[in-house]
């Protein structure tokens, strides 16, 4: 049995981000697209989001690192790159973190991936405690196209891969938001733990289905380090009950219904929602 199978989902702390803080990056019709924007032009132009949930994130990371370290930390990187991450964090938050892989992995609320510039950006080191249905070990040493090859309807993503990587990891700090619907508030959706399955809601419909569904956001930001021939990709995972997120604005249920209905069967299968998509559309 893989070590991460030993972590029962209900024992992991699940810090819940208040609904009013949750981004709503819903655009219809649905397309797998880069969706990058300049961080400098964002409402909150920060690489890192440090908030009152930091202790709960640290506890969740500590548990993963204790039980499944080899699954969460993959590869190594230069001390200068780790120092650059610590310096960027300190400049934004005023908080000090030792520039080591362990200290950064535990104390940042973000997961992060270091990419090395070898003509193309290739993953060199991954610190990912909270993956969304993928294994960090399988992404080590890969470039953008290889990482995203399994993604359904990936033509838009792959078409501009070279320019995208140049923009985000050699030139500008960038930001994007990726949203998911899950049947669990767990931060870690590692495939070995199989936490993202919808089995528990197999017979649910209407309000019961919506009340058992969680809104999951990955806030992704990039830190170019051209002087070090590297770049860093940060992933901040946030979760909140779907019903609370929908209640923030009256039009959200209709927007989500439209975008779910517009998803191709390939995307629905890739996101693991084949058994529930139609019921979610009806419930919304």
Task: Please explain how this structure is put together.
The protein has 284 residues and is of the alpha+beta class. The chain has twelve helices and seven strands. It has helices at 54-72, 79-93, 101-107, 136-139, 144-148, 155-159, 161-171, 206-211, 242-246, 252-262, 265-270, 277-283; strands at 37-38, 73-75, 111-117, 121-127, 174-182, 214-225, 230-241. Strands 1-5-6-7-3-4-2 form a seven-stranded antiparallel β-sheet. α10 packs antiparallel against α12.
Q: Which consecutive residue ranges, at least 5 long each, have pLDDT under 50? A: 1-11
Helix amount: 25-40%
Shape: globular
How do the helices and strands follow one another from N- to C-terminus?
Answer: EHEHHEEHHHHEHEEHHHH
Biggest β-sheet: strands ordered side by side in the sheet: 1-5-6-7-3-4-2
First-to-last CA distance: 39 Å
Helix tally equals 12
Strand content: 15-25%
Estimated structural class: alpha+beta
How is the biggest beta sheet arranged? Answer: 7 strands, antiparallel
Evaluate the radius of gyration.
Answer: 18 Å
Total strands: 7
- The residue-averaged pLDDT reads 88
Summarize the structure.
The chain is α+β, with helices and mostly antiparallel strands and 284 residues long. The chain has 12 helices and 7 strands.
Please write out the topology.
Layout (H helix, E strand, L loop, with lengths): L36 E2 L15 H19 E3 L3 H15 L7 H7 L3 E7 L3 E7 L8 H4 L4 H5 L6 H5 L1 H11 L2 E9 L23 H6 L2 E12 L4 E12 H5 L5 H11 L2 H6 L6 H7 L1
Antiparallel strand pairs: 1-5, 2-4, 3-4, 3-7, 5-6, 6-7
Helix pairs in contact: 10-12
